[in-house]
């Protein structure tokens, strides 16, 4: 039982059992059952949370398929949040891949088919005139973190329409389990703007609006209406944009980042964790990131976002910007982004290679292919954010290996089945001489009798800590410097960089401790930049500790409404 003071509530009887933030199920004491009209509504045994967890874990283990485990856990979450988080915390390594990537991808794809009960809010374009009413219907008066998606690019799985709700829920589960944000302060949101996924449009059980996605001005105005409504209802809430498609992700971020406390997880969160992982990899190699040549496969907003953050880091390390840019090679489906290439997006313009830089390369097509880049640029680092499985072929990896003794290879596309190459393949093709990280979780690989742990370079290392830090000092905006502080903190926690052994990143089971450190450093930068309250380091530490929610039952006292 928590040593926090009692909680006063007027909920009682079945309504109390149906309120997941308050429900304790069989753990209600006899006194509480009498006081709250629960006596007889529960089997007559009084259990501890440990006893409840034992039963839940037994039931969980009886499911074979990950998606069924996911459904089971989500069901507990919708019945009793304290029990859900306690269980997840107890079995974190095992359950993260079930509540989050990769299984959350299946849950998004099958959202309507496996739908059980409501969580979060659906703001539908067709119901836009009620937007304030929708937010008012949320009984949480202090929402502090919102994850919002429009479901157009869910992981590497494309348009999932309202199924995107799965990812908003999954991200927020991690905010609580690993970042200590009380579930009473979180809100998953899906903006239903239609879907272009024919399968969903033709699916009789699909639960979203059955029309093509709205676009252009209609879309922009709708997003704007949502952001303004959020500001009216919860002026201090942090908004995380998640899994928006490329043409919308960057413009939305640009539009709101200077006036709202918000960030885009796929652009900035992924960039922050990748730079942190690259710093750790370079330190373990004994080189500076600024000395490395980096190839990106996938030149969308995520890839370009990471590239820009890598360039910023190289500049911090002392390179001039032009030199830093010359060391970055962006490859997409048409080949290497090169000066003069048609149809470049605005955020790609600054990331093209100069014609003069490739003029003495030999290649056959209009633009250099990935293999050409490997042969001619001789990179040290290869990053995959393409969403296309299998792009890192043996020929590509072998070409890289020819010029680089210890390549750094990050196939980051999610979920597991979208990965550019499996860790097993990469380790085999490089004969184990490689530093590797993936976006989805993979088991350690055994090669020639040696076990290689596979770091999961996933934005989940970053966002819970950012949220915790932002809340601790009520940050008004999220700056690039705050994100870089998160990268540095992650890199500093790398077992491999610090000891020459173990994983490139600390295990995800250490995430709570790491999130507190990230929160501290992020909040300090926010204060230094005048973007937040100003408090002492001691007070900041105390606030982070105090805000860190623990899944423990509190005692209740009944009040009248
Ligand atoms: O959700 C994840 O695992 C990482 C992420 O943001 C994405 O792939 O879109
Ligand atoms: Mg994402």
TrEMBL record:
GO terms for molecular function: oxidoreductase activity. It comes from the Bacteria. Residues 77-257 form the Malic enzyme N-terminal domain. Signal peptide: none annotated. The keyword Metal-binding applies. Its EC number is 1.1.1.38. Residues 267-527 form the Malic enzyme NAD-binding domain. Transmembrane segments: none annotated. Pfam families: malic (PF00390), Malic_M (PF03949). Keywords: Metal-binding, NAD, Oxidoreductase. Its cofactor is Mn(2+). Belongs to the malic enzymes family. This is NAD-dependent malic enzyme. It comes from Rheinheimera marina. The lineage of its organism: Bacteria, Pseudomonadati, Pseudomonadota, Gammaproteobacteria, Chromatiales.
């Amino acid at each position: 039982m928590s040593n926090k003071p009692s909680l006063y509530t007027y909920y009682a009887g079945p309504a109390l059992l149906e309120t997941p933030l308050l429900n304790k199920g069989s753990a209600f004491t006899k006194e509480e059952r009498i006081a709250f009209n629960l006596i007889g509504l529960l089997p007559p045994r009084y259990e501890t949370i440990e006893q409840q967890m034992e039963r839940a874990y037994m039931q969980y283990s009886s499911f074979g398929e990950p998606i069924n485990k996911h459904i089971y856990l989500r069901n507990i979450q919708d019945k009793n949040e304290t029990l859900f988080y306690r269980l997840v915390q107890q079995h974190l390594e095992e359950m993260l891949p079930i509540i989050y990537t990769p299984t959350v991808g299946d849950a998004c794809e099958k959202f309507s088919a496996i739908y059980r009960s409501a969580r979060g809010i659906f703001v539908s374009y067709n119901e836009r005139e009620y937007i304030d009413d929708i937010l008012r219907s949320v009984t949480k008066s202090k929402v502090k973190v919102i994850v919002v998606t429009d479901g157009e690019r869910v992981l590497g799985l494309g348009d999932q329409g309202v199924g995107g709700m799965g990812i908003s829920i999954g991200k927020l589960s991690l905010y609580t389990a690993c970042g200590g944000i009380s579930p009473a302060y979180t809100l998953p949101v899906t903006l239903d703007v239609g879907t272009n996924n024919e399968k969903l449009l033709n699916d009789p059980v699909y639960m979203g609006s059955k029309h093509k996605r709205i676009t252009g001005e209609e879309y922009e105005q709708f997003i704007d209406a949502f952001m303004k409504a959020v500001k009216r209802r919860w002026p201090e809430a942090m908004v995380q944009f998640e899994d928006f498609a490329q043409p919308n992700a960057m413009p939305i971020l640009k539009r709101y980042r200077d006036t709202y406390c918000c960030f885009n997880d796929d652009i900035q969160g992924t960039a922050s964790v990748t730079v942190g992982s690259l710093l750790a990899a370079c330190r373990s190699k004994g080189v500076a990131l600024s000395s490395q040549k980096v190839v990106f496969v996938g030149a969308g907003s995520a890839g370009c976002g990471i590239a820009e953050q890598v360039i910023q880091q190289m500049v911090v390390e002392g390179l001039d910007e032009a030199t830093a840019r010359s060391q970055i090679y962006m490859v997409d489906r048409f080949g290497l982004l090169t000066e003069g290439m048609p149809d470049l997006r605005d955020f790609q313009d600054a990331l093209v290679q100069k014609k003069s830089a490739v003029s003495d390369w030999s290649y056959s097509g209009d633009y250099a292919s990935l293999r050409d880049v490997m042969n001619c640029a001789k990179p040290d680092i290869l990053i995959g954010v393409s969403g296309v499985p299998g792009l890192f072929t043996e020929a590509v990896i072998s070409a890289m290996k020819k010029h680089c003794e210890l390549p750094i290879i990050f196939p980051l596309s999610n979920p597991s089945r979208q990965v550019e190459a499996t860790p097993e393949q990469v380790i085999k093709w490089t004969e184990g001489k490689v530093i590797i990280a993936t976006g989805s979780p993979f088991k350690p690989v055994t090669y020639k009798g040696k076990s290689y742990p596979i770091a999961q370079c996933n934005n989940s290392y970053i966002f819970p800590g950012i949220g915790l830090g932002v809340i601790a000092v009520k940050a008004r905006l999220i700056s690039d410097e705050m994100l870089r502080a998160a990268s540095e903190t992650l890199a500093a926690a790398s077992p491999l960089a610090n000891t020459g052994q173990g994983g490139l990143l600390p295990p995800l089971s250490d995430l709570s401790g790491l999130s507190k450190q990230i929160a501290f450093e992020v909040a300090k930068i926010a204060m230094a930049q005048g973007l937040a309250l100003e408090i002492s380091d001691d007070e900041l530490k105390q606030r982070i500790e105090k805000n860190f929610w623990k899944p423990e039952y509190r005692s209740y006292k009944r009040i009248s409404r």
